[in-house]
Amino acid sequence: MNPERPNCLNNDYGTGCKILREAYTSLFESFASIIKSQAKLPKGTIEIPGFKQSEVQDHSDSAPRNSEQKIKRENFHESARSKKCKGSQAEVGSDISDSSAAKVNLSNEKFDGSTKKAWGSWAQALYHIAMHPEKHKDDVLEISDDIVVLNDLYPKGRRHLLVLARHQGLDRLADVRNEHLHLLKTMHAVGLKWAEKFLQEDASLVFRLGYHPDPSMRQLHLHVISQDFDSKHLKHKKHWNSFNTAFFLDSVDLIEEVSSQGKAILKNDENLLSMELRCHRCRSAHPTIPRLKSHIGNCEAPFPANLLQNGRLVCAPSNAAAVDS
């Protein structure tokens, strides 16, 4: 409509409408053509006009399978041990951490371990540390033939350790059988030793030792975590609930279960991670993590009776009265 343009329509409304109609028709026909061509392609592929199909890859599927690619984040800790990586992916739970975005699951995976779980490349970090701890001497605290001990890179308490099993084929609790009972006892004894060491440094701490039934990081590992939950890395509901609901399985109970049943009896109840936030001492409900943290910093209620039994909590003798009073 600009009179200074050589193709000015001179306010010819009819011609203008016709040109616009033809332009939009051509646009929509091209779009429909692309949609139809995409529908004919195998699932997971993308066709881009002007490119050969072989030049376009679905990286979400091919990257984990590329045997030529080395795992660049093998220093990650359970929450990924790499000091070079500052992403929040691993922070999802120390190992659920939290974790949902960090997990790669088989679509028809069975929770009892009858079907193997597919692990993303970053989720292999603990496995590589357990198999080759000599490559991670700056990160590990203790190495033996059976276990490796290291700090969680994203601790959910003032003290938060991981005790890794070094045995092949033990990706998670679903792989545990009666023949691994001695290993479970060894892992518990090592975790207990480190908890007692920390208690000598700070007698006010209280520890709990346990496992997550469906971790996001490969390789069986025991959490040794202080119950203050005083950490900037505890940010989300799933962080809290992964350690303060039935999702967290106490080491002493697991050992008894494997001894009597020959394996761990696991229940795949991910709804536990989305439960309302409740104080782990007085069980009061709170709407947000900041409100919950503010409360637990001042809560002096005793721990629930079930945690005070069977050695589920570890504390200094001088602090025992304060824990169960």
From TrEMBL:
<feature type="region of interest" description="Disordered">
    <location>
        <begin position="50"/>
        <end position="99"/>
    </location>
</feature>
<feature type="domain" description="Aprataxin C2HE/C2H2/C2HC zinc finger">
    <location>
        <begin position="244"/>
        <end position="296"/>
    </location>
</feature>
<dbReference type="GO" id="GO:0000012">
    <property type="term" value="P:single strand break repair"/>
</dbReference>
<dbReference type="GO" id="GO:0005634">
    <property type="term" value="C:nucleus"/>
</dbReference>
<dbReference type="GO" id="GO:0033699">
    <property type="term" value="F:DNA 5'-adenosine monophosphate hydrolase activity"/>
</dbReference>
<dbReference type="GO" id="GO:0003725">
    <property type="term" value="F:double-stranded RNA binding"/>
</dbReference>
<dbReference type="GO" id="GO:0003697">
    <property type="term" value="F:single-stranded DNA binding"/>
</dbReference>
<dbReference type="Pfam" id="PF11969">
    <property type="entry name" value="DcpS_C"/>
</dbReference>
<protein>
    <recommendedName>
        <fullName>Aprataxin C2HE/C2H2/C2HC zinc finger domain-containing protein</fullName>
    </recommendedName>
</protein>
<dbReference type="InterPro" id="IPR032566">
    <property type="entry name" value="Znf-C2HE"/>
</dbReference>
<dbReference type="GO" id="GO:1990165">
    <property type="term" value="F:single-strand break-containing DNA binding"/>
</dbReference>
<dbReference type="InterPro" id="IPR036265">
    <property type="entry name" value="HIT-like_sf"/>
</dbReference>
<feature type="compositionally biased region" description="Basic and acidic residues">
    <location>
        <begin position="55"/>
        <end position="81"/>
    </location>
</feature>
<dbReference type="GO" id="GO:0030983">
    <property type="term" value="F:mismatched DNA binding"/>
</dbReference>
<dbReference type="Pfam" id="PF16278">
    <property type="entry name" value="zf-C2HE"/>
</dbReference>
